Amino acid sequence: MKIGIPWRTIAALLVMFPLASSASAGDKVLALKPEGTVLKAIERAALDAAISDKLKLYPDLERIAAPGGDVTDLMMELECIDLDADCLGRVGSRSGADRVLLVEVAKKGGKLVATVKWVSAAKKAVTRADEVTAANAPALSTAVALALENELGAPPVKPVDAPPTNVVEQPAKAGTLIVETNRVQAQIFIDTEYAGTGTATIDRPAGSYTLRITHPGDETQVMKVDIESDKTVTRQVTLKYGAGGVGGEKKPPVVDDDDSSWVVWVVIGAVVVAGAATAIALAAGGDSAGPRGNLLLGIDGSGAWRDPATTGGRR
Amino acid sequence: MSHTRKFHLKATHVPTALKGALVGLALVASPLIGACADDGLATLRVALSVEAQQSFELFVFEGSPGADLSGSTAFESGCQQRRSTVLELSDLPTSADYSIVYKAYGDTACAGAPIAFGFRGGIELAKGDGLYVHVPVYETGAGTLLPVDLNLSSLGATPTASCDTPDICGGAATAGCITSGDRAWCVPLCRTDDDCSSLHSEAVCDVDTSWCMLASPWPLNASEPRLLGRAMTRPNGDVVVVGGLTPATNGKLGVTKFPVERFDAATGVFGSFDLAGFDARPGAYFGFAQFGPDSAVVAGGLSGANRFDKGTGVDADGRANGVDKAFVIDFATGRAVSAQLGRVVIDPSVFVIDPQHFWVVGGHEGRPSDAMAGATSTSLCAVDAVGELSCAKGPSLAAGRIAPAILCVVESADVCQRALVVGGNNQGGPVAELVELSGKEIVLPAVTAVGLPNVLLRPVFCGEQLVGGSTPSGAVSALLLDLSALDEGKLGVVAADQESPPVPRWAGHSADGCGLAAGGLDGPSAMGKSAWTGTGGALSLEKGNLGTGRLGAAVGRIGAGALAGSWLVLGGSELDGGVRVIKGAEVWRP
């Protein structure tokens, strides 16, 4: 009697009950920056940050720094004709990685489709390719992050979520804030702590924080943000070069996908003649924030006449 | 810097504010305070301390913060680099009462003590875009002028490529082109007030210069020019300024349109104040004293004048405008009660005997022949149980006196029994005397003063120290009195304070004499800009200056809120080829 190994059954069981983590100690992964022209730079950066932050949840996984140049540069350097498995494998080998992760984004039927591709550096072969679809870029970031678990398994339970042992007070549950800017080199700070450059995925206990985004030559933006437990909120911040100046146009506010209470600052137009303008964005998440308004604060007395309280004389 | 103009103005008529604004534009974001012109050239005056603001913190309070800046905040900026004079806050929850606090620092890390402090309260933010709010920012250790006489034309300037192209600014008569360095600007001009209405509903056209001007940005500044008003602090911290003369027709001075100016401590801007019963009121040279926590006495005074003389203060024919009433103003109810004094009295002093009684002392009685000679007569006034005021003849003085300083030397159960009256003896006689106020028939000794000038004009007490006053030849140093042998008729001087320069004539003093003295006449034609603040019953010279020199300003302490401890210095006059009444106020922040 021939006894065969029930591969199909095992495969099915693996799908139904994935291993806690298929990332093994010493496993080195090179995550390349996402590819695809359908995403804006800021959206690509956000997706890259989402991938990076997801990989951070696997302590046994050693993440290899992505090459500084884009993939095209690497291809030319390695004389790759196409960004195929062979090429990616060679990129991985060159970087000392065991596996290479590449996410390619395209648009199909009005939706964003990302192919999450894993390549073995040793075999120079695709070991896994998952396709995920989303309606917009933030949703795609979330979907891709989830798709990584197909290869890596569920991430180990994070210490912050572990049941308290010696602590008396239950720590606040964490939430996630994704900050996306339009400057690759913009520095992002949460309270006084550096959180990232260009984009940042910030996990913090629920609460109120001060977010500060700076970039040389741009107006610093400061805002109050609320992180809610078990929620991921994406904030898009548009930095503007220089100061308001004379005759600046008024740009429409950038509105977040999931939270209409978030309004990024608008450019101050001709109201500023002899002075530049600094914009400070103020935001509080959640739908219960109520009606909101914008306030221009002038500290130069020559502009005092613009204050509507100024009646031009008491009557 | 050169200016090319394509309109009809002479170079010397180019408003300094516009020049300043253009320089500011050329420099990109220089906070401009003012500029002065000389033969078509402009010299930019920048408030260095404002320019020195390297970093700042901004707080948005829900409601009004306490004096220690306690309170709930809707937003805190953290330390920011200051690169502009306009900030924008977006997506702020609407509110009927926001307050803004701005702290500026001289370094880039918000370290050390703030060098400037901004405050504005009472902000009502409705849903929508772009409510512009002016936040006054006050320097520390100096007076900061509040905005006034704004040149809207300069502020409406828009950049253009060049003034060489004909009609670059539209060719309308109401637009001109002006250059500053290598930059060019189109500037709105005017021929009539209507041409300015698009800039501000109350803007007017200065037809001499064709600029649109906003003369008064009230409530961000005082409502009208006010000379020789007097100020006090209300229990809620507001400063109220009573009286004052203002330019009237034919070059004369008359009473101000509004008898009371109110600075709102909760909002940091001025507010209206309606006062009933303050009829036939004085504008200047009235006796004034705080009478209870929220009321004041105003007695006598002048309701008009031909002129104000910086040397003597004498009005040419002001006697006809003398006031013969005393008023008690209740600020809580907005009501004043009055009583006849039985005589016109100009420049008396008011001394509070107890919570129901006050004494109106001396003053010129308006007799045509005696050129502001001090009177010996006094009046005792009382407020009865129903709040009505009555006055009767009081004890006579040994010497005629104008605006003497008065100190209680014997007190019983919070009632002053005996007072020491010093100075104001412009017709000779003893410089000091004792007066019994208890009604008892007591023969008091004549006072012999040692160490005091024989004649002391317009003295001011702070505790037992004379902190202001002058002889006919000039101001005297502060004098700490020795009262130990007063029962024997001997008045001595413990020490003269030689450390601090004497407070000059016509300085504005706070109501209690101990808070702040500001401005005055530094010399025959020099405006005083110094300020003295009170510490421990004495005044010491502050190093910082007022924003402008002032004679006869009103001085009142802001008593609550974020500006608590700062001083409002309001009105007065400056010497500008004569005497010109100042319309604006400033805030002195220690």
What does this structure look like?
The complex is a heterodimer of chains A (315) and B (590). Chain A is α/β, with parallel strands linked by helices. Chain A has 5 helices and 14 strands. Chain A has helices at residues 7-16, 41-55, 71-77, 85-95, 137-152, and strands spanning 27-31, 61-64, 99-108, 111-120, 125-134, 174-181, 187-190, 193-197, 199-205, 207-214, 221-227, 232-237, 277-281, 292-298. In chain A, a hairpin with a 2-residue loop joins β7 (187-190) and β8. In chain A, α2 packs parallel to α5. Residues 1-21, 158-170, 242-277 and 282-288 of chain A have low confidence and may be disordered. The two termini of chain B are 37 Å apart. Chain B has 590 residues and is mainly beta. In chain B, strands 3, 4, 5, 7, 8 and 10 form a 6-stranded antiparallel beta sheet that branches. Helix content of chain B is 3%, strand content 42%. β14 of chain A pairs antiparallel with β6 (86-93) of chain B.
Total number of helices of chain A = 5
Tally of alpha and pi helices of chain B = 3
Biggest β-sheet: strands ordered side by side in the sheet of chain A: 2-1-3-4-5
Mean pLDDT of chain A: 68
- Note the gap between the termini of chain A: 109 Å
Proportion in helices of chain A: 10-25%
Q: Can you tell me the residue ranges of chain B where pLDDT is under 50 for at least 5 consecutive residues? A: 1-49
Largest sheet of chain B: 6 strands, antiparallel
Order of helices and strands of chain A: HEHEHHEEEHEEEEEEEEE
Q: Using DSSP, what is the number of strands of chain B?
A: 50
Count of individual beta strands of chain A: 14
Label this structure with key terms.
heterodimer, A: 315 residues, alpha/beta, 5-stranded mixed sheet, 4-stranded antiparallel sheet, 5 helices, elongated, B: 590 residues, mainly beta, 6-stranded antiparallel sheet, 6-stranded mixed sheet, 3 helices, globular
Mind sketching the topology for me?
The complex is a heterodimer of chains A (315) and B (590).
Chain A: H1 7-16, E1 27-31, H2 41-55, E2 61-64, H3 71-77, H4 85-95, E3 99-108, E4 111-120, E5 125-134, H5 137-152, E6 174-181, E7 187-190, E8 193-197, E9 199-205, E10 207-214, E11 221-227, E12 232-237, E13 277-281, E14 292-298
Helix pairs in contact in A: 2-5
Chain B: H1 16-27, E1 34-38, E2 41-45, H2 48-51, E3 55-62, E4 73-76, E5 80-81, E6 86-93, E7 95-105, E8 116-125, E9 128-134, E10 137-139, E11 142-145, E12 150-151, H3 152-155, E13 158-160, E14 175-180, E15 183-188, E16 204-206, E17 211-214, E18 230-233, E19 239-242, E20 245-247, E21 253-255, E22 260-264, E23 269-271, E24 287-290, E25 295-299, E26 304-305, E27 325-330, E28 335-340, E29 349-354, E30 357-361, E31 378-383, E32 389-393, E33 405-412, E34 415-422, E35 432-436, E36 448-449, E37 457-462, E38 465-471, E39 474-475, E40 478-482, E41 490-497, E42 508-509, E43 516-518, E44 530-535, E45 538-545, E46 554-557, E47 567-570, E48 573-575, E49 579-581, E50 585-589
Parallel strand pairs in B: 36-41
Antiparallel strand pairs in B: 1-2, 3-4, 3-5, 3-7, 7-8, 8-10, 11-50, 12-17, 13-15, 14-15, 16-17, 18-19, 19-22, 20-21, 21-26, 22-23, 24-25, 25-27, 27-28, 29-30, 30-31, 31-32, 33-34, 34-35, 37-38, 38-39, 38-40, 40-41, 42-43, 43-44, 44-45, 46-47, 47-50, 48-49
